[in-house]
Amino acid sequence: MALTACKECHKEISDKASTCPSCGAPTTTPSVTAAPTQPKAKRKTTPAAWAGLILIVAGIVWYSQTREYREQSLPPIPVAVQHRPAMLGPGEVLRVNNTSGQSIFAVVTLTNPTTKETKSFLLDIPAKQFAEIEHREGWVLAPGDTVVISNDAFQSWQGSI
């Protein structure tokens, strides 16, 4: 630390002082200088990031198309669907007949188009037998209800009551 003369009042002051303690005049070399602020540089997207984004989008498109193709290449689900009026309760009874020689585990999704309510049921249908869904399972089947029966090994069956 060295002493210098103030340019205004000519008294001795420290060379580290930013202003003169006697007159308050600023010194020529302030002890703390603020770093000049520069505008933030805009981030640029690198070519590698663009390539990664393109690969992700292409993968999503490829997956959705291959899933649709896979569904179309499967055999139709071997079921016959019927419905009849319920004998002991409200609505109708959905009867799903397995027409194949092997047991089928299927997901039956019912949708009421008026209320937009949807419910799914798991059915294990023995070979050459049937399974039924009625009001006791929690769904009052009504005309207009849509039915989708699906299994991963077969094409889905769609219809309505």
Strand content: 25-35%
Q: What is the spatial order of strands in the main beta sheet?
A: 6-5-8-9
- Rg (CA only): 40 Å
Count of distinct strands: 9
Total helical segments: 1
End-to-end distance: 97 Å
The CATH topology of the largest domain turns out to be Immunoglobulin-like
Q: Can you describe what's shown?
A:
The protein is of the alpha+beta class. The protein has two domains: 1-30, no CATH class; 76-160, Immunoglobulins (Immunoglobulin-like, Sandwich), CATH 2.60.40.10. 17% of the residues lie in helices and 33% in strands. The protein is built from one helix and nine strands.
List the main descriptive attributes of the protein structure presented here.
single chain; alpha+beta; Immunoglobulin-like; 3-stranded antiparallel beta sheet; 9 strands
